[in-house]
Amino acid sequence: MNQNDQDKEIQNAMNAAPLGNEPPEDLMRNLRTLAKATPVRHAWRINRLLPVAGIAVLAVVVVSMLPSKASAKTYDMLVAAAQKVNAFQFTIESSEHGKKEEFSIAGRDGKVYMNTGEGSVMRIEGDAMSFYDQKENKIVRMKLGGLVDPAFIAKEIQGGMDEAFKNMNLKQMLEEYGKKYGKDKIHISPRRYEGVKEVYDVTLEATSQPERVSITVDSATDLPQVLEVETRDDKGNFRHEVTMRMRFGNEVDDSALKADFPKDAKVEEIDLSNVVGDAMKGMGTAFEQAAKEAEAKKK
Amino acid sequence: MRSLATLFRPEPKQITPAKGAPQAGLWGADIDQPNEEVQIARARNPEELVEFFSTEIWRFVSSQVQHREDAEDVVMEVFAAAFKDFPRLERADNQRHWLLGIARRKVADAYRKRYRRAEMPLSEGVLAPTEGPSPMQLATRGALAQLPDNQREVLVLKYVNGLSTEETGRVTKRSATATNSLLQRGRQSLREALGGTFGEFATNPQIGEER
What we know:
The complex is a heterodimer of chains A (about 300) and B (about 210).
Chain A: H1 3-15, H2 25-37, H3 44-47, H4 49-64, H5 75-83, E1 87-94, E2 101-108, E3 111-116, E4 119-125, E5 128-133, E6 138-143, H6 150-167, H7 170-181, E7 186-188, E8 192-194, E9 197-205, E10 211-218, E11 224-232, E12 238-248, E13 266-271, H8 272-298
Parallel strand pairs in A: 6-13
Antiparallel strand pairs in A: 1-2, 1-12, 2-3, 3-4, 4-5, 5-6, 7-9, 8-9, 9-10, 10-11, 11-12
Chain B: H1 4-8, H2 46-62, H3 68-84, H4 86-91, H5 95-117, H6 122-125, H7 135-146, H8 149-160, H9 165-172, H10 176-194, H11 197-203
């Protein structure tokens, strides 16, 4: 009997191993009930933040390449302009599967706040970073005690946005998009008024792509205001997936620049200066001991 | 250029089929074809996780846990653990492998509990009445119960869940070479445990599909 025949025998034998091809109905019922009853915090808010920020950057780059007055600006000039933005506010609304979720991050003058539809989750201000754990209803407040300047950390986060411009090479990505799907896949609308503000719309759409991205741009600054992503369903109809609203500079909403945690939340204070101080003391003792041992060996 | 979709879901090679869509290659690998890595689905919430993966997990667990009630309990435990850790599972490169990894640990726990309770030897447990098992089903399940845990689980992953040798290694955290030699030992052990019955699987290829 050759190897193939032997393998077929094993396969035939193993086909008899499960207690059935499908899980029993009562098990399926219980699993569905459990699935519905389980509160789940999706990871998308955090792990999609940077990609979404990337889309915002893409929006800026799209605008920079348009044959409008924005086309006069070079990519580098735009980057430089973005780096001067001292305040930002990104609000992301997702409506996957009919469930709406919200996430916002805002920063100004070295302070950064994150909020979700379920409440605030983080703030960096003064001499501390605070994180709120909704599950435990607990605030962990880390005092930095002069070891690290929280304003520096906040500026680093804000600076991350600027870095995105440099590292993602989106200009090249957009050029490739144009080459692959054709420049006619980028549509620009005539200018229109939204309230008192003059805006225009940019749409990225290719039949080979499952998404359509629409960007509303402030014609005075050429900065993106709203970015919407729609995806095609099985019948080819577009349905809304994500909306991202962006504000810069003076337009940042003051209400986004705070993070109020529940008053009844437990507070855990961690003084990092003490923790680090103790560790240094421990290291000092260890070094001292090692030096003594080395000395003893020499003798 | 990356598709715009990947800016939001930057995991390549993932497919989310429509509900109820046939999931070719999910199990019962065609042995005439090489096993290829198949990205079955990507669940975005616990309900989808159940719809996409419950059959796969049921087949993996019920191939190894002897009593139907125990198998159902283990499957519930697998999904409860998955729901609890859903944010991480949501980001996993391969949700299928991740879930099978949880299932593997839960099956091992079930075996340990069973030994601790010392209710009855596993080989006797398989003879307990279930819903109309065929003699061949009893023979296979009895033989599998005699195999070392590591051999049994790789055989199930390969031949019941239809994973390639490489994927089997990924789930069990072994190299492809180590997995291959474990599979060889597993096949040999299964042949020996089945004894004379083994030849009957060769003469009647439909036999294993009886339920």
